[in-house]
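Async update (no meeting this week)

Hi team, since we skipped the sync, here's where things stand on the single-chain job. The sequence we agreed to prioritize is pasted below, unchanged from the tracker. I ran it this morning and attached the output directly underneath so nobody has to dig for it. Comments welcome in thread, and please keep replies under the output.
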Amino acid sequence: QVQLVESGGGLVQAGGSLRLSCAGSGRTFSSYSMGWFRQAPGKERELVAFINRSGGSTYYADSVKGRFTISRDNSKNTVYLQMNSLTPGDTAVYYCAAAADLFGRTLLKTAEYGYWGQGTQVTVSS
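Output:
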C-alpha cells in the first residue's frame, strides 16, 4: 500500500511554468507505475503523463506533449511533473496515482490505478 501527497500547484500566468511533486510513503514506491491526471470543472479526469517503475518509459497525452515532463526519483519516493508553456486550458486539479502493475504496461485509464493523492490545484491566468 502507498499513500500519495501532491504539492507544487498554484496560480501562474500563461506561458509560465510549475513543477508538481508527488511524495509516496512506504518502502515499495519503486514497485509502482505512476501517473499524473487532471480534472477540470465539469470534465472527466484524464491522464496527463505516465511513467513506469524504473522511469525508463513514459507516455504523454497529446495535449501536453512537448510541454510537460514526468520523472521520478525512487531514492526519494517522489514523482515529478514539470509543466512549461502553460495555457489557461491546463487549469485543473492535478492528481498523482500509483498502480501495482507487474506486467510493465503503459496504464492510461483511471480504473487501472489503485492509489490516489488528494490533488493540487493549478490555475493558469490569461
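Quick observations from my side:
The radius of gyration is 13 Å.
Residues 59 and 93 are 20 Å apart (CA to CA).
Reply here if anything looks off.
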